[in-house]
Amino acid sequence: MTRTVNLPGGTALPLIGFGTWQLEPKTAYESVRAALDIGYRHVDTATLYQNEADVGRAVMDSGVGREEVFVTTKLRPQDARHARRTLESSLRLLGTDYVDLWLIHWPTGEDELVPTWRDLVSAKEAGLARNVGVSNYSPAQIDLLAEATGQRPAVNQIPWSPAQHDPALLDEHRRRGVVVEGYSGLKNTDLRDPVLTEIAQRYGVTAAQVVLRWHLEHDIVILPRSARRERIAANFDLEGFDLTKEDVAAIDALA
After folding, report:
1. Closest CA to 30 of 50, 58, 52
2. Region 107-134: what's the mean pLDDT?
3. pLDDT tens digits, residue range 231-253?
């Protein structure tokens, strides 16, 4: 059973997503095929990654229905003035009529923050994106968008890891009803840390699995990526063990 979190519009967002940053086209295709085969139902790409066509082909060739896969792509800030055109290009490359989530990859210049957000909201209203959100935005920037348009981002995708997490910042998002997706959770973690290796040993899992499970305990969406099938599978296999409150607190304390 895939764990999900509900977005404000009611869409179920799978908590475990497959990230595709830095995956070259052929690798992106093979890795997404493997991920969908293993059971992932959430794939994250971006204009910046230059692999949307391969991701889209992998979804199409997977035998899994399009409506069963939650697909995210992202708009580069430098494309903000041509947002709709960029999304239409992404949809062509992905081979789909809509994305489940469209994010602004980083904040644009101050003057373009609100106009760009209006473009995302209008794409949602046109049915090109089921949900819209942001990445690397502060709560203050999210408030600015919401106050100007009456529409709050559904998601903010930000760096999140045991060494780089902030309960107060998480609370700011929760109070606003914004779902947090964490990226670089493994990249920014010392997987040889004795706290992690001790917990991993106790449950017979890897330190990476412990870190990913810790995210899930906090209801943070994760986006692990790998080009190796066995690691793609391990990153998805997080239900066979439970972290205790003490385990979670010990990992929290690594910040």
Report:
1. 58
2. 96
3. 999 999 999 999 999 999 999 99
The pLDDT score that the predictor gives to residue 9 is: 84
Judge if pTM exceeds 0.85: yes
3-class SS letters over the chain:
CCCEEECCCCCEEECECEECCCCCHHHHHHHHHHHHHHCCCEEECCHHHCCHHHHHHHHHHCCCCHHHCEEEEEECHHHHHHHHHHHHHHHHHHCCCCECEEEECCCCCHHHHHHHHHHHHHHHHCCCECCEEEECCCHHHHHHHHHHHCCCCCEEEEECECCECCHHHHHHHHHHCCEEEEECCCCCCCCCCHHHHHHHHHHCCCHHHHHHHHHHHCCCEECCCCCCHHHHHHHHCCCCCCCCHHHHHHHHCCC
Radius of gyration of the chain from Cα atoms?
18
**Cα–Cα distance, 18 to 140 (Å, whole number):** 29
Query: Which residues carry out catalysis?
Result: 49
Report yes or no: 152 and 161 within 8 Å, Cβ to Cβ. Answer: no
C-alpha pair distances (Å), 7 with each of 72, 100, 176, 179, 221: 13, 11, 12, 7, 12
* Residue-wise pLDDT tens digits, 4-26: 999 988 899 999 999 998 778 88
pLDDT for the residue 24? 86
Instruction: Tokens for 180, please give them.
Output: 């947090």
User: Tokens 């052929």, residue?
Assistant: 26
Whole-number Å distance between alpha carbons of 212 and 250: 14
| pLDDT value for 1 | 61
- CB of 137 within 8 A of CB of 108? no
